């Protein structure tokens, strides 16, 4: 058992027993569940919309090399600069280089899971650069010294009382401030940072190859301010965010907003195709797009797991997952939590250290049912388990146990041997690893075969 696996089990054991945490999460997810059906009403056939989106992503991923080259060509025509980063280290190195060239002391960034993946804030701090989260949820998490809890709503696990207490401790606001008053305090602080910052960093919800642009979706306007006020705009985006055409946004924007937050469309939707042009009055003087691999080509070369690259990070699978709702986002110990995180993390960061995440599932299939682009998530979780076994990452005791189980299952005489209580004693006594974190197996007193014969003796 890896250290990551032991940490996961320890944290999940504690979190699952935290009733206050469960109450907060169920409340917030309950609000999400109440509005999503309303958002879906904008589609004549939501299943057809999801199927079409999946087909578009299939095309984008199957021709990803061509799409990325086309994006670079079109983006460069307008003065933008593309940087290819194979690893976290390369991406951080390039960002630091740009910041030093601009004598950057303050950097503002909008919500971006890719920047969380490369631990941008920590890297900036080491180099004496203030990195400020401008998304309200991310800002709350940064104040509390925590990573995002959820792909879409970073502070989902916090109640309004938790946030009021945090602001009181960190910013000196009155303990009884309302959410509206707390938002005003954050807004006042962050607006000063936009003006001071030399560099702005954003992610991208989509890369658009045919126009050489990026699409950013948000509800607060902080991404627009982060890329418009500073003289330099850096985009950090995973290569899998590709869509072939700007016209595809007519499908993807409503899907992302509906499955992400239950809205018909998010408040701010921006398409950015480069730095400020001669005939334009605002925007950055320079714009860089860092195309991040960081293990994604490992997934791309796997014909089964490749489907996970279709993900548009709506977070619907997290909200639907019974495991996530009980153990929360931080327990996973990775940037991407929930079902999609359990699928991609072992392939991004190594099966040996993170295979345990693929077992953190009931395989109920609810994640697949709600996925905006119909990724077969529960099947991919099973495939990860299969790969872990094929790579020899299981213990001797586990392999022996399954061989015994297979042998017994193929022999009717062995299956009928002994009573239920006797089987319970033998099996639960032998398989200590199995019932360490699970309830004991409970066999019936008689097998189905035995009961059938008794009923139909003739």
Estimated structural class: alpha/beta
The best one-word shape is: globular
Number of strands: 10
Uncertain spans: none
Instruction: Describe the largest sheet.
Output: 6 strands, parallel
CATH domain fold name of the domain at 42-294 = Rossmann fold
The percentage of residues in β strands lies in 5-15%
**Average pLDDT value?**
94
For this entry, give a set of tags:
alpha/beta, 6-stranded parallel sheet, 4-stranded mixed sheet, 24 helices, 53% helix, 10% strand, globular
Provide a quick synopsis of the model.
The chain has 458 residues and is α/β, with parallel strands linked by helices. The chain is 53% helix and 10% strand. It starts with a helix and ends with a helix.
Question: What is this structure's SSE topology?
Answer:
Elements (H helix, E strand, L loop, with lengths): L2 H14 L2 H22 L5 H17 L1 H14 L3 E5 L2 H14 L4 E4 L3 H5 L2 H7 L3 E4 L2 H8 L16 H12 L7 H18 L2 E4 L3 E3 L4 E6 L3 H7 L3 E7 L3 E2 L5 H13 L6 E5 L13 E7 L3 H5 L15 H5 L1 H6 L10 H12 L1 H4 L11 H5 L6 H14 L5 H15 L1 H4 L4 H11 L1 H4 L12 H8 L3
Helix pairs in contact: 2-12, 16-19
């Amino acid at each position: 058992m890896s250290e990551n696996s032991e940490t996961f089990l320890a944290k999940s054991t504690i979190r699952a027993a935290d009733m206050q945490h469960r109450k907060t999460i169920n409340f917030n997810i309950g609000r999400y569940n109440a509005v999503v059906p309303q958002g879906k009403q904008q589609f004549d056939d939501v299943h057809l919309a999801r199927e079409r989106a999946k087909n578009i992503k299939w095309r984008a991923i199957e021709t990803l090399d061509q799409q990325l080259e086309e994006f670079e060509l079109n983006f460069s025509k307008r003065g933008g600069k593309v940087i290819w980063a194979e690893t976290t280290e390369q991406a951080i190195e390039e960002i630091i280089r740009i910041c030093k060239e601009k004598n950057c002391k303050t950097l503002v960034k909008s919500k971006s899971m890719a920047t969380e993946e490369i631990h941008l804030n920590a890297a900036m701090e080491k180099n004496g650069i203030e990195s400020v989260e401008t998304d309200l949820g991310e800002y709350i998490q940064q104040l509390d010294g925590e990573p995002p809890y959820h792909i879409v709503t970073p502070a989902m696990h916090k109640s309004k009382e938790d946030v009021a207490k945090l602001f009181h401790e960190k910013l000196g606001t009155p303990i009884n401030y309302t959410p509206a008053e707390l938002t005003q305090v954050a807004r006042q602080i962050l607006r000063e940072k936009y003006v001071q910052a030399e560099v702005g960093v954003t992610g991208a919800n989509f890369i658009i190859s045919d126009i050489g642009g990026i699409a950013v979706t948000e509800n607060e306007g902080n991404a627009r301010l982060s890329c418009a006020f500073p003289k330099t705009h850096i985009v950090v985006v995973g290569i899998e965010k590709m869509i072939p055409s700007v016209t595809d946004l007519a499908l993807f924007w409503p899907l992302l907003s509906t499955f992400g937050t239950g809205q018909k469309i998010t408040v701010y939707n921006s398409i950015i195709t480069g730095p400020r042009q001669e005939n334009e009055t605002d925007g950055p003087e320079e714009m860089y797009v860092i195309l991040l691999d960081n293990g994604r080509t490992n997934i791309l070369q796997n014909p089964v797991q490749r489907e996970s690259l279709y993900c548009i990070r709506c977070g619907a699978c997290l909200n639907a997952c019974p495991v996530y709702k009980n153990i929360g986002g931080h327990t996973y110990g990775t940037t991407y939590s929930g079902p999609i995180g359990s699928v991609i993390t072992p392939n991004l960061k190594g099966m040996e250290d993170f295979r345990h995440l693929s077992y953190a599932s009931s395989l109920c299939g609810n994640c697949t049912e709600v996925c905006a682009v119909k990724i077969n998530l529960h099947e991919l979780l099973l495939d990860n388990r299969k790969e872990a076994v094929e790579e020899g990452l299981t213990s001797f005791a586990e392999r022996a146990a399954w061989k015994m189980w297979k042998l017994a299952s193929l022999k009717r005489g062995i299956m009928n041997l002994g009573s239920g209580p006797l089987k319970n004693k033998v099996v639960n006594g032998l398989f200590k690893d199995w019932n360490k974190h699970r309830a004991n197996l409970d066999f019936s007193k008689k097998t189905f075969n035995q009961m059938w014969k008794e009923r139909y003796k003739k």
